[in-house]
Amino acid sequence: MQISPAGGGGDSQSHPGKEQQAAGVGILLQIMMLVLSFVLGHVLRRHRFYYLPEASASLLIGLIVGALANISNTETSIRAWFNFHEEFFFLFLLPPIIFQSGFSLSPKPFFSNFGAIVTFSILGTFIASVVTGVLVYLGGLIYLTYRLPFVECLMFGALISATDPVTVLSIFQELGIDTNLYALVFGESVLNDAMAISLYRTMSSLKSHAPGQNFFMVVFRFLETFVGSLSAGVGVGFISALISFSAGLDIDNLQNLECCLFVLFPYFSYMLAEGLGLTGIVSILFTGIVMKHYTYSNLSENSQRFVSAFFHLISSLAETFVFIYMGFDIAMEQHSWSHVGFIFFSIIFIGVARAANVFSCAYLVNLVRPAPRQIPVKHQKALWYIGLRGAMAFALALQSVHDLPEGHGQTIFTATTAIVVLTVLLIGGSTGTVLETLQVVGDDHDGPLSESLDGNNGYVAPSYNEDATSGNRLKMKLKEFHKSTASFTALDRNYLTPFFTSQNGDDEEEHGKIDYCQNVT
């Protein structure tokens, strides 16, 4: 299924030489845009120009080139080489991006805030999806927006709830934002991708197969998709750790073998989940988390440097290409711009849903934390504001063109693309100013990201020694959940890490600190 109809295909097929020339021009243009994006991003970062982040620059490059192509004689050849199947995104572009996200999610600050991250990414994403879907549906009923069936509104709410703050994370590092806020933003964006795609697949399956299914069947289908994909990813990750540990691959002359296996296991996880009818993106995400935490420790130092650089490289290329393509697509394609009201009100509804997500989840998290370690209101406002949309929302919207007939999918695709572009350009460009206005830059208890690992500042590692002055059952249940996460940390340190890696838990913790410091500098 092609999203962009290629023009002039018959003439190219009758002249193989011209077709080959068109291919060369199209590929050359793509390479030139990638080179320009990376160079421009480096210049902007070097001069600390926060008003145009790298992702925004890539979008603008795509927009400019697409606009120029529209008025030039090379439009047909360029358009032909920007025609991608939805499978291209899910098989080649998204897997390295998602794996790299999970691969980066292992240092201490993320696991210290694991309970809060899970609350925001699982419960919060569900709240945001439902609120967005319901508001869009109600907007259609009162003729504020383009009217969609309720299930399709929930599908739109699920896909648009996937956040992608890659645009602002580099700004966080430059401004010296609190480590805990950084961990919450990054951790939520990684795990909520898995939640969003599972919700989307569940709603899509509900629409396609049995509209009359009851609520329990919908819940069961979601759990089957999410938990099954998670289990497949974790299982493959542990298998890779066990193989690397048992085979003793941390030997210099086996560097080629261990690097090849490390690169192949993520795609094995992805294809296994897809073959089982599950979600490969969710599977490869948790494979990345497990492999970084266990398998990575069994590699030799040279192999560790190679795989870190390799996955960072291909994920950067893929993500930059996605943003370029989004800008190019806006300028080149015929979108459903007749439904501008749907786009406008969707942005408002998304803001409301994001507020319901952030402030309700922060309230639940703060119920179980002592006052000095609660999530401050200014951090909650920052979390609400920087909920950008990116590659995952775009890819799911691209798939919706195939999943939803009668032009509904094209309307959702147009709205999602416009929302992604607007949030990346406007919110991404204003993030630095907003963070300074909220006074979350250079808090007294905050140090540089690389230094704050050694302290117990902010709201890392909440304690459980305070007296239970309230009989609130919800508060006690949440306390038990946080204690269970602490118990898992002890289980990991005392049993899992020694069993699957060649070092003990204390060494792993120190290794995580060093590795995280290297990543943020």
Automatic annotation (TrEMBL):
Signal peptide: none annotated. GO terms for biological process: potassium ion transport; regulation of pH. One of its GO terms (cellular component) is membrane. It is a multi-pass membrane protein. GO terms for molecular function: sodium:proton antiporter activity. Its main location: membrane. InterPro entries: Cation/H_exchanger_CPA1 (IPR018422), Cation/H_exchanger_TM (IPR006153), NaH_exchanger (IPR004709). The chain crosses the membrane at residues 22-44, 50-68, 117-146, 222-247, 267-294, 306-328, 340-362, 382-401, 407-428. Residues 37-436 form the Cation/H+ exchanger transmembrane domain. Keywords: Antiport, Ion transport, Membrane, Potassium, Potassium transport, Sodium, Sodium transport, Transmembrane, Transmembrane helix, Transport. Belongs to the monovalent cation:proton antiporter 1 (CPA1) transporter (TC 2.A.36) family. This is Sodium/hydrogen exchanger.
